[in-house]
Amino acid sequence: MKPPYKCLRLIYQQQNIFLRLSGFAGGVLLSVLSGCSQKPNSVTLSTGTVGSYYHRLGEQINYSTNTTAEFSIRNFESQGSQENIQRLLNHQVDFAIAQLDVANEAMRAGKVKAVAILAKEYVHIIVRKNSEIKTFDDLQGKRVAVGTPGSGILFTTKQLIQADKLKIQEDYSNFDEAFKKLKSRQLDAVIYVGSLGANEKLRQIFAKNSDMNLLPIRTALVNNLTVLDPSSYESAILPVGTYVSRPPIPDRKLPTLSTATVLVTRPNMNRQIVGLVTWSILSTARTYSQFYPELQNSKPEELMRKELFYIHPAAEAVFNQGDPRMVIIRYWENNNDLQAGFFILGTTSVLGLLLRQWHRQKSKKIMTTTNNRIIELKSLLPDHPQQALESIEDLSQENRLTFIEGLVSTEVYEQLRHKTQTFADQCRTLIEHQRKKFVMDTLLLLDEWQASLQIDPEAALQKLKQLKQQYREMLLSDQVDIEAYIELMNLTLISLMTLVPKSSPADSNPESKKQNLSN
Questions:
Q1: Beta pairing, strands 143-145 & 189-195
Q2: Which of 21, 124, 322, 498 could hold 341 in an S-S bridge, CB 3.0 to 4.6 Å?
Q3: What's the distance, CA 99 to chain centroid?
Q4: 371: how many CB neighbours lie within 10 A of its CB?
Q5: How far is residue 181 from each of residues 125, 176, 185, measured CA to CA in Å?
Q6: pLDDT per residue over 10-41, tens digit each?
Q7: Where are the alpha helices (DSSP H) in 381-452?
């Protein structure tokens, strides 16, 4: 007896579904295998001179791609942003690091596309402390190092000079030579454009030469440039003690101009490579906090694409959707019918083995990422223990959520928790040690100033007031925590109470004492 028509139709549909699922599984398998096997043969990047901020950024990008996508980037030295952009346009390299103001002309012409913002660069105007130069406008007619040919420093300096209609004696010496000339009085100023505190040479120069100083840029001039080219520039502040904390350099908040550091490529660059490079950077974003401190406490997806008008489509897709290699899995997660089919096939097929292998690799990668993140944070620990602590706590929370989602086993999670907890304890110990040391340093300063009471009581009182203001600035710039600040304020208050009666006869009045203390 022939089966009824409806039964035949049902059998046909089941067979058809099975064949379609099998075909899809085979397609997924081929895609996974091809994705695993196809890695870029040679990706090139133009950066900067060895040891420079751009060259270190290039090494960091190579670390990201090696860690996340398992391919390397060849790092080519250069003189800076302008040379990097030209190399990119000449098809000599695949990617380039440049200042956004330098790259914007080629971006507007459609010749270059952005991949990600890697940092913010600030204009630094460096002079000798005893110099008559007090602001950028005072550079009129002076001998100034403006950056080497091909550098972004030279480009930005030219924009400032033209906007302010200055005429100066331009010097094109490299970084090291320029500071030697400044010290020997062959130059009056050196202009540098770079990430806050990221240039180790600059930090060392300020540490070894207390006679150097940083100058402000007139707010009206900064506003003029930000209005003329808002996609390239924005106003910024150099915080107190960015380079040296005692005595602080700079010794006050300085208004200045900033532009972004951006990774760029050509519009026709292979989408797969652009996507992998973008994801490698985004997934290891906190490792870039040494160049871009805001990444410690903000979402990298927002900071690394903020106000980019000419972004490569593959980079845009990564910022919106994440890992480009996970497209198939995201498709699967959003399709209930396919999930059911995968469950049936996954328990008995090669695809199931691949998925289980992927799960094991995921656990291994999380462990490796945690180890690498702790190694990176150790370099941040000596100077910025509070940032390191906040970062390791964020990482601990990420690992906890990963465990809750079932992506790692209990055993792996316990190992991760032990590693992050141990490092967090190290951070807290160092923070407490630095707080105590800072208080002891303050006590020594107070002792020195109290010793000067017999000679000049008014000067001693003024110094203590300056110290109080300095503490406020350091609190606002996160150089001391609130507990240390309160303790230091108590110390200065006690010292002020001992100073006020000795400062002048008029201060014997209680109301006068109260007014002095409030000041």
A1: parallel
A2: 21
A3: 14
A4: 12
A5: 15, 9, 6
A6: 444 444 444 444 444 444 444 444 444 456 66
A7: 385-404, 410-451
Q: State the Cα–Cα distance between residues 249 and 238, nearest whole angstrom.
A: 10
* d(C-alpha 48, C-alpha 55), whole Å: 5
**All residues at 6 or more sequence positions from 361 whose CB lies less than 8 Å from its CB, including other chains:** none
Report d(CA 249, CA 244) in Å as an integer.
5
The token pair that represents 283 in the structure block: 């997934």
pLDDT, greater one: 512 or 56: 56
> What are the tokens at 61?
């990008």
Radius of gyration of the chain (CA): 29
Q: How many Å apart are CA 408 and CA 364, to the nearest integer?
A: 9
Q: What would the 3-class secondary structure string for 180-242 be? A: HHHHCCCCCEEEEEEECCCCHHHHHHHHHCCCEEECCCCHHHHHHHHHHCCCCCEEEEECCCC
Phi, psi of 113 (to 5 degrees): -125, 145
Residue 255: φ, ψ to 5°: -70, 140
Name the amino acid, one letter, at 141: G
pLDDT digits (tens, 9 = 90+) for 288-342: 888 888 887 778 888 888 878 899 999 999 998 888 877 655 555 555 555 555 5
Cα–Cα distance between 52 and 61 in angstroms, integer?
14
